[in-house]
Amino acid sequence: MSHPQCRFCHTPLRQTFVDLGMSPLSNAYLSRSQLNEAETFYPLHAYVCENCFLVQLEEFETPEHIFSDYAYFSSYSDTWLTHAKNYTESMIQRFGFNPQSLIIEIASNDGYLLQFFHDQNIPVLGIEPAANVAKVAQDKGINTLVRFFGTQTAKDLVEQDRQANLLIGNNVLAHVPNLNDFVAGIKIILKPEGILTLEFPHLLQLIFFNQFDTIYHEHFSYFSLLTVEKVFAKHGITLFDVEELPTHGGSLRIYGRHQESSYHPVSDRLHQLKAKEIQAGLDRIDTYVQFSEKVKQTKRQLIQFLINAKQQGKTVVGYGAPAKGNTLLNYCGIRTDFLDYTVDRSPHKQGLWLPGTHIPIYSPEKIFETKPDYVLILPWNLQGEITQQMAGIRQWGGQFTIPIPQIQIV
């Protein structure tokens, strides 16, 4: 049997990180007319490279197929908008960006972040492959280019004299199958003294808190600081600082610059986090091999909770229709026999059905009409925001259920 190759160092991938069975694309929401059509399921099998420790999925569908018409709009999370605004203020304060700077964001979505720089009269450019999402940004006055990012896009922009003083990529690095081309593009588009910041879920948190549901086909790779530093170093970019963030269950924000640049010495925070990862065993293959068993335990606990609830005549509904929820529900085999429906604030998802499980999506008001006993929070990373918004379920004795890292009733 031939093995897939590591997308960074091309080592054959022989070691399983976790095998979540077969699953549809997690953002392939269904309309009513599609419910009786065949759905395509793909292996959701994550490997770990024994050479560079990059955790990754094989590429079964092209980014063009996955992202050209996309159902995720960043602006529907208040928590995420606040995060973006705070980031903008912090970058301007720390690095002094001004109306002479150019801020470029890769995978700029609906302009959720660039709007805050735009409001400060700082020139911005978004690069967003999903035309339907980019249009929302363009309608807000955010200059947005509808393209995938890589070396060709970077070269084209340099020819137009558009290089970044600040280059931003939030939750995009994991979505890139051609990792080396993407990072090479970053090297090209960054001004000589430019700053790069990227945010992505931290593999250490995924392992420690059993966040297996963040594995889905739209995410091709999962990074530790140890591995991501190697990836950028290969392409001439030095990481000089890192922050640990609470977003998406625990993310990293890395700061990079050209290796040739003398600005920004490497911070103590970066050295300390690498030491923490080594202490946690992220430089040893056995750490990765042990992950699968924790995942199976969580699946058994969740199914047991749902069986018990149903046997007691209780009703259970979902809150949210995130990609991670689709991984969880498909892996655990949870359909409408366990979960009556789910709700989502995004009107782009309401009136559709979840891929694979065919659970219908309504607006949050539905919960107050049917008064369920349990609300299963699928975007568990937004637990605080959701329990606050939906606190009214307490009036009839309703309770929230959190599935990750293990089942918990709150």
From TrEMBL:
First-level EC class: transferase
Domain Methyltransferase putative zinc binding: 6-67
InterPro entries in the record: Methyltransf_Zn-bd_dom_put, Methyltransf_Zn-bd_dom_put_sf, MeTrfase_14, SAM-dependent_MTases_sf
Pfam family, one: Methyltransf_23
C-methyltransferase domain mapped to chain residues: 246-405
GO terms, biological process: methylation
Origin: domain of life: Bacteria
EC number: 2.1.1.-
One Gene Ontology molecular-function label: methyltransferase activity
Protein name as it appears in the record: Class I SAM-dependent methyltransferase
Organism: Geitlerinema calcuttense NRMC-F 0142
